[in-house]
Amino acid sequence: MTExxxxxxxxxxxxxxxxxxxxxxxxLGTWQLQRLGWKSDLLAQIEARSTAEPxxxxxxxxxxxxxxxxxxxxxxxxxxxxxTAPFLQLYGLKNGQAGQRLFSACxxxxxxxxxxxxxxxxxxxxxxxxxxxxxxxxxxxxEVVGLLREPDxxxxxxxxxxxxxxxxxxxxxxxxxxxxxxxxxxxVFLLAETSSNPDFPDLDPTPLPGxxxxxxxxxxxxWFGLAGALIAVYAAMLWRRWKS
Length: 244
Description:
The chain is of the alpha/beta class.
């Protein structure tokens, strides 16, 4: 075989590597397109649920007991003495500011559940004061409107919770409910959008963030772009090889 004929043969090893890499890149791009559809449907669902008129929390929590998804439903709930209830402090960030989110328990009638945790709001670390905690006898009923949220799963960088110091870094609903003495807690918590303590303005209720990122189309185009670049580089290599 002449040298020219040899150089015009496809490089089998390199071609196989390129094909495998190309398949991976296309698969990743396709997966991101699927995620785009999923995220778009999710955002539409969140928008519909979170902007609807609030309904009684017990009605929605009963569905949770039946295994239904109840995330982002807007509900209302009467919590006796919530403004002076004991609370746990969950580390959080708001607009780049570190602070603590205050969680208290509220009794509820929702199927199998008798309580739900309420995220009352955010207090920045620059504020040392906290709402008062007093006995619950003759507690004033406080109406709370907010969104039901599923707790975020901790990741490998999430510090361990320190219940003894009332320092929480992951929203472990069963453990937090136990620390508050709440019985039969719902598996979701209520993210308050109304204040339990209007006389304590440093406690800032935090509703759903105004915008949830949906960058899956951007990611898909990136993967497909890399696939196209790989094809172009491989074609250029073959062209130079056959031209020589």
